[in-house]
Design a protein that fits this description.
By secondary structure, this protein is an alpha+beta fold. The protein has five domains: 102 residues, 3-Layer(aba) Sandwich (Rossmann fold), CATH 3.40.50.300; 163 residues, Beta Complex (Endonuclease - Pi-scei, Chain A, domain 1); 53 residues, no CATH class; 176 residues, Roll (Endonuclease I-creI); 62 residues, Helicase, Ruva Protein, domain 3 (Orthogonal Bundle). Helices cover 28% and strands 28% of the residues. Helix 7 packs across helix 8, helix 15 packs across helix 16 and helix 15 crosses helix 17. It is elongated, with a radius of gyration of 34 Å.
């Protein structure tokens, strides 16, 4: 709809929806700038997030995940399917969880759970803000909102509006319990709800199915195809095919008789296996065979590993003392080496937690953590747990898992100066990450804590604006408009892309009305930042949404502007806004009718000449006429008149 301001474009849109008896959704173009991601509300690509996709859960950087949906330097919003991320659950009961306001409504955060992601977004910016808080750093754009605790409530505020001393919302959620006379302050920790039981079996042998298929094909074609033709088709040598068909040997992966150790086909995930995984992550190696290396004085650990390996796999080791006072526990089985490598990595820099640990109950994680801590950590005199690794991925995963299981943990980064001689070789410079669990959160502390769960809060220490040249990222359409991200899980506000369009689709038939569409629909290419201007990004998103309607979706999009000359051609081409309705300023008869409507309920003197007033208001819109009558009423009231006279209208 095209017409001067005040000619009733919005009123006409509402009337259309009313006459059609359909849902009506309205938003001004300027509000789209805040709602859509074009405003630049995003985090940097190195921000860790937890993603569940295709049945697998993985902690990875948001950039690593989102970049998979783009080619080269593409940017904008891309719809995704089957993707979930860690968000939060809300509740209406007063006694449950934190509480705050969302869009003017009370909101309570009672825990974390995986939420569906509708789309992903990336774009380039030239500056970011670093939020330095007690326990880590989050890097975002100025407009990205972060949840904080302020005045006893939870609220999401843009990074640019945050200040020193604000408290971020992070996992685990720590809630004060009601005060009891004579009792120290009590706290309750709300942890993520994991499955209560575990019934997982892991393939020990992990036979290569391609080799199995190749072998079966070669045997089935014996006599029907030449060995040369079979070899060419399956990609092995002719001699290999001949040996298979003549029974000289079979593929090693298929011949368990060649393996001296009688390993089980499957290993059930138990507390014992999880502790073994922890030991392996700390001190294990899976190259060609399986070995654990401990200090020669760590006799209890030697005995525990040997006992657990015998219990889980039914195998006995070869023991070896070395010249550097270490003690090796070896199992000469490439299959066992590959089994542990497959689930926990190989080499100190590449170690990680088993993928399935994200779906196990608390006691299974604690078994893994205990094995890792006993193998590669220590407990301080004050009761803290300390674990150090040169694998950043491992420490991040442990930090998130601890947080999700209600165990407060911190991460410290350090650099190791090279030069130390190990096995006659100087060590190079390196870096490491230290995971620390405080005394009140230590799950393995033997002594009783009088007031447990007293955690240090994530207090903002400083906010630094820095230049930046690269992509920033966001997840869109997450339920409750939030997801956890960071070295430790901090609650971040996600972009509310598609809210208006999704709501309209849910309530179809419906009409979407965009007022002042010229605020975002101007011809592209004129932004001060070129293709990265926020107006252009918002327009791009609207075009994507309009193209996404299917024939069976009963949604009509209407818009209004008083500047049709500046609209982008892509916005008004057929298939988008392809109908124009011109609303002109009212003529004399129209002005009479409008004056009659707005005069209702107001006291006017008998001498008011509506014909004269209509003739003198050429060029007035309906809004102008309404305002004129309101001003005349105010003037009459100031003059203590009981009725509005003609003089008040002139």
């Amino acid at each position: 709809m095209i017409g001067p301001s005040g000619t009733g474009k919005t009123l006409l849109a509402r009337a259309t929806a009313g006459e059609a008896n359909v849902a009506f959704f309205s938003m001004a173009g300027s509000e789209f700038m805040e709602m859509l991601v074009g405003v630049g509300a995003s985090v940097t690509g190195d921000t860790p997030i937890l993603i569940k996709q295709n049945g697998a859960t993985k902690l990875l950087s948001i950039g690593e995940f989102v970049d998979n949906f783009y080619i080269n330097n593409e940017e904008g919003v891309v719809s995704v399917d089957g993707v979930h991320t860690l968000g939060f659950d809300s509740h209406t009961q007063r006694e449950k969880g934190f509480y705050g306001y969302k869009n003017g409504r009370m909101q309570r955060i009672v825990g974390s759970s995986f939420k569906k992601v509708s789309s992903v977004f990336r774009h380039k910016v030239n500056e970011i803000y670093e939020i330095h808080y007690l326990g880590g750093v989050v890097k975002t754009t100025a407009d990205h909102s972060v949840f904080i605790r302020r005045h006893g409530r939870i609220m999401a505020i843009p990074t640019k509006d945050m200040k020193k001393g604000d408290i971020l919302v992070e996992l685990p959620l720590n809630i004060r319990l009601p005060y009891l006379p004579g009792v120290k302050q009590r706290h309750k920790v709300i942890a993520h709800e994991f499955p209560r039981t575990a019934d997982i079996f892991l393939d020990v042998w992990n036979d290569d199915f391609q080799i199995v298929q190749n072998y079966e094909f070669a045997m089935s074609q014996k006599g029907a195809m030449s060995q040369y033709a079979i070899a060419a088709q399956i990609g092995v040598s002719q001699m290999t095919v001949g040996n298979w068909q003549n029974g000289i040997h079979v593929p090693q992966l298929l011949s368990k008789k060649l393996v001296k150790l009688h390993l089980p086909d499957k290993a059930k995930v138990t507390l014992s296996l999880m502790k073994l995984f922890g030991y392996y992550t700390a001190e294990g190696r899976g190259t060609k065979n399986l070995e654990f290396t401990f200090g020669i004085h760590e006799v209890m650990l030697h005995q525990d590993v040997i006992r657990l390996m015998r219990e889980v796999f039914g195998v006995s080791p070869v023991l070896e003392k070395t010249a550097d006072n270490s003690f090796k526990i070896k199992y000469y089985s490439a299959h066992l080496g590959r089994f542990f490598t497959r689930h926990c990595g190989n080499g100190s820099r590449n170690k990680h937690v088993p993928e399935f640990i994200w779906d196990l109950p608390r006691e299974y994680f604690l078994a893994y953590l205990k094995g890792y801590w006993e193998g590669d950590g220590y407990q301080t005199k004050s009761g803290k747990l300390s674990m150090t690794s040169i694998s950043k991925q491992l420490i991040l995963e442990l930090s998130w898992l601890c947080s999700m299981h209600g165990i407060k943990a911190g991460i410290k980064y350090g650099k190791q100066q090279g030069g130390r001689i190990i096995k006659n070789k100087p060590l190079p410079d390196g870096e490491y990450w230290n995971l620390i669990i405080g005394k009140t959160a230590n799950p393995f502390l033997s002594e009783r804590i009088e007031s447990p769960f007293q955690f240090k809060r994530a207090i903002v220490r400083k906010i630094v604006k820095k230049p930046y040249d690269g992509f920033v990222y966001d997840l869109c359409g997450v339920e409750n408009e939030a997801f956890f991200g960071g070295d430790k899980p901090v609650l971040l506000h996600n972009s509310r892309v598609r809210d208006l369009f999704n709501n309209a689709k849910k309530h179809q038939p419906a009409i979407i009305f965009i007022d002042e569409v010229d605020a975002i629909g101007r011809q592209r290419g004129a932004g001060i930042m070129g293709g990265h201007d926020e107006r252009e990004q918002t327009l791009n998103q609207i075009l994507v949404e309009m193209d996404g309607f299917t024939p069976n979706e009963h949604v009509i999009v209407m818009a209004a502007t008083n500047r049709p000359d500046v609209l982008d051609p892509a916005l008004v081409r057929p298939g988008r806004f392809d109908r124009r309705v011109a609303l002109e300023l009212p003529d004399i008869n129209g002005r009479k009718a409008i004056l009659a409507i707005h005069a209702k309920g107001k006291p006017f003197a008998a001498d008011v000449d509506w014909e004269k007033t209509s003739k003198r208001t050429v060029g007035f819109s309906g809004a102008d006429l309404e305002n004129m009558l309101n001003e005349s009423a105010i003037m009459a009231a100031r003059q203590n008149k009981k009725a509005i006279e003609m003089s008040n209208l002139e």
